[in-house]
Amino acid sequence: MPREEKNITANKKAFHEFFVEERFEAGIELTGTEVKSLRENGASLRETFATIRNGQAFLHGLHISPYSHGNRANVETDRSRRLLLHKKEIRYLHGKLKEKGLALIPLRLYFNTDNLVKIEIALARGKKLYDKRATIAERDANRDKERELRTRTRGE
């Protein structure tokens, strides 16, 4: 019986701050105590971003809490971690990141069906303040429309 994906953490502000253009799944290079800490749900994607240097992708700002039984095997909580992507994907992302306004941000961290830690990263363009206001207004209008439809169907 296949297992389901298990979310560890998600970047809730990503869709508020950015327009997501493309998504990629990447592995992440971790130590044993970091994986055990993730099983205890000890991670935060706040203020996290990815860069590409020397043909390798790195994730900066990912906070993984120290493992509770880790003693000296624990590593620094906010260190840079290497992302595991195909060379072709890294070249593609490197070319895209040279465009103005594009960033590589994480959307969620999860255990896949094979119990491996994966991270979903996105090529995203930052939103301006007026874009954020338009998104909020659109969401409110849709909510009002749904509410109106529900009250009409109940009355009949």
Description:
The structure is a single chain. The chain has 156 residues and is an alpha+beta fold. Helix content is 32%, strand content 35%. The radius of gyration is 19 Å and the shape is globular. A hairpin with a 5-residue loop joins β8 and β9. It has one domain (6-127): Small protein B (Small Protein B, Chain: A, Beta Barrel), CATH 2.40.280.
Short note summarizing the structure:
The protein is of the alpha+beta class. Helices cover 32% and strands 35% of the residues. The protein has helices at residues 14-17, 32-39, 87-97, 129-155; strands at 6-10, 18-28, 43-44, 49-53, 56-60, 63-64, 81-84, 102-111, 117-126.
Output the number of helix runs.
Answer: 4
Structural class: alpha+beta
Question: What would the principal axes of the Cα set say about the shape?
Answer: globular
| Helix proportion | 25-40%
Count structural domains. Answer: 1
CATH topology: Small Protein B, Chain: A
Q: Give the end-to-end Cα distance, rounded to a whole number of Å.
A: 45 Å
Report the portion of residues in β strands.
Answer: 25-35%
Order of helices and strands: EHEHEEEEEHEEH
CATH superfamily: Small protein B
Which residues form runs of ≥5 with pLDDT under 50?
A: none
Please tally the β strands and state the result: 9
CATH C-level label: Mainly Beta
- Look at the structure and give the mean pLDDT: 90
The largest β sheet comes out as: 7 strands, antiparallel
CATH architecture: Beta Barrel
